[in-house]
Amino acid sequence: MNILVLNGSPRASGNTAAMVNAFSEGAQQSGHQVEVVNVCQKKIAGCLACEYCHTKGDGRCIQQDDMQQVYPLLQEAEMIVLASPIYYHSFTGQLQCAINRIYALDKPKKLKKAALIMSSGSNHVYCGAIYEYQNSFLNYLKLEDRIKLCGLSRACDIEMANQLSPEYIGFVFTPKSKRYIPPEKAAGLKELLNPGIKAVGVFVDESPETIAHLLNSGLVDIAQLHGREDESYIDQLRRLTDKPVIKAFRIKSADDMAAAEHCTADSVLLDSGAGTGTVFDWKLVQNITRLYFLAGGLSPDNVKNAVDVLHPFAVDVSSGIESGGVKDPVKMAAFVAAVRKEGKV
User: Fold this and answer.
1) Could you tell me which residue, 132 or 296, shows the higher pLDDT?
2) β-strands 314-317, 146-149: how paired?
3) Can you tell me the distance from the alpha carbon of 207 to that of 241, in angstroms, rounded to the nearest whole number?
4) Closest-CA residue to 112 (of 3, 7, 267, 256)
């Protein structure tokens, strides 16, 4: 994959630069091509909103500055990474200028994915940048929404997932769930899974030591907590592993949303209940300022509307892609097609 990193940090040796370097090295070791553009070293003016690019310019900006060097890189990029220290709750001004000037291209031809790297001395200033990234940048570029197919339990489920290429699949490690599989079976299924798809382990009030062991052994890549796990629990788990953590919240009121907003987990999942397959009131989440997984009652019939209205970071489905209590390959394909707007299957 061709990856373009737009680094908005003015410091050559700051925290953002260190994270960009670490990301680039890891991506290159995985076989990807990475180009880093330090936009603060470029002369890039803000967008004039003159519409020349979309009327007379045929995708060319009227301003002849260093952005002209960036446009060819954007056209070849399959993934864009925005990297910035967060000042006054948003990106640096120079990165803002570069982002706005992408407008001339409408959407880069090969672009499929985007990512965000942020650094700050405070934990409370990221909301504005995340909101802008999610609701402006991703929405304008019409990038694919991330998909999690949860509750997979058979080899044929994994084979179908490999064909559909969701970003995530889920294994349920809760014995009371009808989708429960023991770790030994999950290990065999993980071996069949394409390495580009992340495996999420779903847990309910499991011991941090057990979860950390499954994460650190590579059986799952991410932990999803669906029980009464509080901030103290998350802190304890973080001391045992550096793998990402998703905390699920049952959304019934504004108080539930406030708890999700302030949770220190890497991400949150907003749901109507533990596997109930029902939709909650989406109006409660319309003003959220952090990235989130949307779950609860999603199906091939309603997921497109959910994505268009709420713009979640990812959508999570389990019962909505089942028939007779097991995963239905036709429904799995229809769900992915609806999210990615590929038409009916």
Assistant:
1) 296
2) parallel
3) 13
4) 3
The H-assigned helical ranges of the chain are 15-29, 52-55, 67-76, 93-101, 127-132, 139-141, 155-164, 183-192, 208-216, 231-240, 254-262, 303-310, 329-339
Q: Which domains does the chain have, with CATH numbers?
A: 2-141 (3.40.50.360), 146-339 (3.20.20.70)
Written in H, E and C, the secondary structure of 64-123 is: CCCHHHHHHHHHHCCEEEEEEECECCECCHHHHHHHHHHHHHCCCCCCCEEEEEEECCCC
The CA-to-CA distance between both ends of the chain, in Å, stands at: 27
State both tokens at 5: 């990193």
- Amino acid in position 40: C
Q: Could you identify the residue written with the tokens 């300022």?
A: 289
Amino acid identity of residue 144, one-letter, is: E
Percent of the chain with pLDDT over 70: 95
**Residues contacting 231, CB < 8 A, separation 6+:** 263, 264
What tokens does 328 get? 């239905």
Query: In 153-163, which positions are buried (b, 16+ CB within 10 angstroms) versus exposed (e)?
Result: beeebbebbee
Q: What are phi and psi of 241, to 5 degrees?
A: -155, 155
95 pLDDT higher than 50: yes
Of the candidate ranges 199-203, 252-256, 269-273, 338-342, the one whose mean pLDDT is the lowest: 338-342
Tell me the backbone φ, ψ of residue 16, rounded to 5 degrees: -65, -45
Q: How confident is the model at residue 345 (pLDDT cuts 50, 70, 90)?
A: very low
What residues are annotated to the active site?
Answer: 150, 271
Report pTM: 0.69
Strand pairing class (168-172; 198-203): parallel
Q: How far apart are CA 313 and CA 319, in angstroms?
A: 20
43 has pLDDT over 80: yes
- DSSP lists the bridge partners of residue 79 as 3, 113
The SS3 call for residue 234 is helix
What's the chain's length in residues? 345
For Cα atoms 78, 81, 82, give the angle at the middle one, nearest 5 degrees.
Answer: 145
Strands 79-85 and 292-294: unpaired
